[in-house]
């Protein structure tokens, strides 16, 4: 494999980070106590996180010729993505960026055009909190009840945005032959990761507006 350079996008959850680190080891990049390897996971990647990454990305490598940044998040705000565009288009010499997100298609086209797709290991499966096929086949009221696991908050008082995005992607896949109702899915996916997003109403719109699909 040729030497990693530029920016990459990996589809996956937090579990994909381990696969990325294995890839780096195969590329002869030390993953333990390496001052030039920056690995971070975020519950939310916003403008402040983007500014910090941009600043770090402009600094020189300490021990080697490359600095590698592995960033895992359930999503990135539009503001954060726009802040990174110039950095990804013209990265500092030796800077490599690897972004791990559950649903790359939710990112802005302008950002996706500046990164390469990177497949690591085997495709990582994530246990779905809500079965998309059963959801699509259910009546609207039943769907509203099925949303409960996605709306639950963890100890940090935050919902699992990654699980929600994975669910929306599964719904989109299930609607390929019946595109009516995709507008609600696209709208939810566009705003779900934004700070202060009204998650419950967005998902309820999906439950009420997407047509029933019985497979």
Please provide a written account of the structure.
By secondary structure, this protein is of the alpha/beta class. The protein has two domains: 6-117, P-loop containing nucleotide triphosphate hydrolases (Rossmann fold), CATH 3.40.50.300; 132-209. It has ten helices and five strands, in the order βαβαβαβαβαααααα. It has helices at residues 15-26, 47-57, 78-89, 109-112, 132-137, 140-146, 148-151, 161-174, 182-191, 199-209, and strands at residues 6-11, 37-41, 67-72, 95-101, 116-117. The longest helix is centred in the C-terminal third of the chain and has 14 residues, at 161-174. It is elongated.
What's the topology here?
Layout: E1 6-11, H1 15-26, E2 37-41, H2 47-57, E3 67-72, H3 78-89, E4 95-101, H4 109-112, E5 116-117, H5 132-137, H6 140-146, H7 148-151, H8 161-174, H9 182-191, H10 199-209
Parallel strand pairs: 1-4, 1-5, 2-3, 3-4
